[in-house]
Design goal:
single chain; 273 residues; 12 helices; disordered C terminus
Length: 273
C-alpha cells in the first residue's frame, strides 16, 4: 500500500502548494510513481502542473461527492510517473454540501483506497484552513508534512494544527502521524531563522526535516510556466532542496517498512549423531 502524505498548514503563504507540487515531482523524478491530489478550491497545484481550468474535467469535487472514481479523475503530467487529480472551484461548496453527508469525513479516503497500490506516494495539497476539506485529507492520510516559515507567528499557528491532528487521531484516524516539519523560504543568515529553528528542534526533535527550502526565484517562477521546479530549472537551489527532501522521506519510508517486516526465527539444524 502506498504512503499518503497530507501537506497541511492552516496558515497561508508558507509554501504549502509549492511543497506539494515539488515533493510529488521529486518522487516521480526518483522513478517512484506518485500522485498529487489537489484538495484546494484555488486549484494552484493543478495549474502549477500545467492543467488549464476545465469545468468539464473530473476533479476532487466529484470524488468527494461520489460522482466519479479516482481512476477516472487521474490526469497525466509532463513528468513521467507523476499523475494529478485536479481541483475545481466547486470544492468551495463541498464544505456545505457534505455537512449532512454519510461518512462525510471518509469520502476522500474511500475514493483513494482502490488506487493506493498503484502509487508508492500520494501527496495531498490541503487548503489553508482547518475545514471539512482538510479534515477529509487528514483522515485519508498516513502522515502529515507541515511546511513552516521561520517566524514566531508560524510557531503559534502550528499548535492549532497539532491539536487538530490529535483530535483526528482520537476519533477518526488513529494511525495518523507527523511525517515532519520542513522549513520553507528559509534564510539561515538571519538570527530569527536560527532562533525559530532551535525552538522547533527542541519541540519536534527528529521530526524537524534536515532539509530546508531556501527562498529561490526559479522556484517562485516555475508555477507560472505550469512546471515543477525540477522541470523548469533542475539546477536551481529550490529544485535541489525538494529532491533532497524527497530522498529524506523515501529513507523514512524504507526504514519504517523494514521495521514492520517480521523477523524470521532461525531454524535449528539437527546435530549429527
Amino acid at each position: 500500500m502506498g504512503r499518503v502524505i497530507a501537506v497541511a498548514n492552516q496558515k497561508g503563504g508558507v509554501g504549502k502548494t509549492t511543497t506539494a507540487i515539488n515533493l510529488a515531482s521529486s518522487f516521480a523524478a526518483a522513478e517512484v510513481n506518485s500522485l498529487l491530489v489537489d484538495c484546494d478550491p484555488q486549484s494552484n497545484a493543478s495549474s502549477g502542473l500545467g492543467l488549464v481550468k476545465d469545468p468539464e474535467r473530473i476533479s476532487t469535487y466529484h470524488l468527494l461527492m461520489g460522482a466519479a472514481s479516482a481512476e477516472e479523475a487521474l490526469q497525466p503530467t509532463e513528468l513521467e510517473g507523476l499523475f494529478v487529480i485536479p481541483s475545481h472551484k466547486n470544492l468551495i461548496g463541498a464544505n456545505i454540501e457534505l455537512v449532512d453527508g454519510e461518512r462525510r469525513e471518509f469520502r476522500l479516503r474511500d475514493a483513494l483506497d482502490p488506487i493506493r497500490e498503484r502509487f508508492p506516494f500520494i501527496v495531498l495539497d490541503c487548503p489553508p484552513a482547518l475545514d471539512l476539506l482538510t479534515l477529509n485529507a487528514l483522515v485519508a492520510a498516513d502522515t502529515v508534512l507541515i511546511p513552516m516559515q521561520a517566524e514566531y507567528f508560524a510557531l503559534e499557528g502550528v499548535s492549532e494544527l497539532l491539536d487538530t491532528i490529535e483530535r483526528i487521531r482520537v476519533s477518526l484516524n488513529p494511525n495518523l502521524a507527523i511525517e515532519g516539519v520542513v522549513m520553507t523560504m528559509f534564510d539561515e543568515r538571519t538570527n530569527l531563522a536560527q532562533q525559530v529553528t532551535a525552538e522547533l528542534r527542541r519541540f519536534f526533535g527528529e521530526k524537524l526535516c534536515a532539509t530546508t527550502v531556501p527562498r529561490n526565484i526559479r522556484l517562485a517562477e516555475a508555477p507560472s510556466h505550469g512546471k515543477p521546479a525540477l522541470v523548469y530549472d533542475v539546477r536551481s537551489k529550490g529544485a535541489e532542496s525538494y529532491i533532497r527532501l524527497a530522498k529524506e522521506i523515501i529513507a523514512h519510508y524504507m526504514a519504517a517498512n523494514s521495521a514492520a517486516e517480521p523477523i524470521e526465527e532461525p531454524v535449528e539444524m539437527d546435530k549429527p549423531a
